[in-house]
Model the fold of this input.
Amino acid sequence: MLYPIQNRVRNRLDISGIWDFKPDPDGIGEANGWALGLTNARPIAVPGSWNEQYEDLFGYLGLAWYVKRIYVPAGWRGERVFLRVGSACYLGTVYVNGVKVGTHEGGHLPFAFEITDHIRWDEENIVAISVENELRPDRVPSGNMPRRERGMFMGTPATTFDFYPFAGLHRPVVLYTVPQTHIEDITVITEVNGAGPRATADGVVKVQVKLNAAADGPGRVQLKGDATSITADLAFVKGVAEAALHVPDARLWSDKAPYLYDLTVTTAADQYSLKVGIRTIAVADGQILLNGRPVKLNGFGRHEDFIASGKGLNLPLLIKDYQLMRWTGANSYRTSHYPYSEEEMQLADREGFLIIDEIPAVSLQLADEANNPARLRLCLQQIEELIARDKNHPAVVMWSVANEPMPAGFGVGELGSHADDEKNRAGKAFLDALLDKAHALDPTRPATIVMIMGSPLSWLEQCDVICVNRYWGWYTLGGQLDLARQRLIAELDQMWAQFHKPIIMTEFGADTIPGYHGHPGLMWTEEYQADYVRCHLEVAATRDYVAGMQVWNFADFAAVPSIMRVGGLNHKGVFTRTRTPKMAAHVLREFWTKTSK
Done:
């Protein structure tokens, strides 16, 4: 899961760009030799979603093929060569010169296969990747569930979730090399001693390094900053070595001062560098503590979504979005409802955003989980892959193992009687297994589940932070903000009294047609959304146990077309899909720039 880099030992070649592309609705491509080239191919951009690039493919989620012809640099001979795909939604299979080299299930996370033995040196190589994104009940996220379990979002395609299921190669495809004996994994854990009101404290950077082979030998780790250079020796025993670097008067990483050090690990044959932020994250006394000090996670739920690129990595859009989030005064967001790109996590480290990092377990139908172990297997796999990928990012402060798992007898208008019955015990066991996995793999960060209105409160018992999505004033008590405020206050106080854990409202929002105004401000107007957001922020401001407010959503985004989604968009963004602010964005700026000073 180490991000491919270029240095004096390792090589990296991005082969993204324009590829040949061809849908394969009949599944004949492999048998007919499409891995060696396509006839009547279309051009397609990688990264990018095919649904946004071609009108006739908007609703197509079946099998499709990507092919590109490349040369592998001759200087790479003698090294091990890998092909790495940043994201293939949902099932990706890689071929090199007609040979199938591997398959990966689950979109949004990277995978790599060694292709050294399949390379043709000094001549053209054919790389093919087949991708399909079929919606199935046993996948994560699921689709094509029985009609009763699709609820208010019934539309086409038949998702169980409220965003468009874009398909394709959504992140870069790269070739990279490593030496025969190389650094396979690095784990960095930081500690802070005596943190207080200052931006510095004594720090400790603990480093564990694993090689790809059970080799013994020496190595070295170095930490460098503006006025810091600390080294320690590594002694590999059966391919594993550890060191602890003590950093006096370390500059701490935070949302207000995201200082990054350069960490470099060197072995006899290999070298790898990454950015490190010295910081701690903890939960105590009903608060989230960053470097021992209370912090509020104010910001957004978001989506990787834009015109033309779909869910494809869009670097200019990343810069624009971060600038707009900072303009509102936000310091946080959740990767709703799947892992975002590695490039975005690197930008969050640099810019000081606090990330709730989430796997794609959205809208799981838990009434039948005991009878469907495939979904549990996939969720556990995704937790393992996500933590392996993102564990060294200081910006990542919490793991979310599910969003809005759906209980039996679901009802969004309930308050207090949250269906803690026999039908939902299997669901609790399922979710507890996910939390246990996250805690076991990374005990340094809190883990949570993001709960929908009306879900059993018992499902929250093992969470370190209570994360809830609440739509009082929209889906329930729509247009009645005075009553919605009372219900919100009652429910927040009830959860605090029961759990005495910090609470984050990870979603609250109202659909708003851009430019639609009214006096009085009725539902769907910009005035109503502004009043709705203001109401929720005012309630949170009077409750110290509310550790964050994340508006749903940062920007309007593509959803499954239905009677619920005008123009095929979810309009809960405080910015339009093209990033024009609505009135609610100015309300956020009023609250958050004032409280962040």
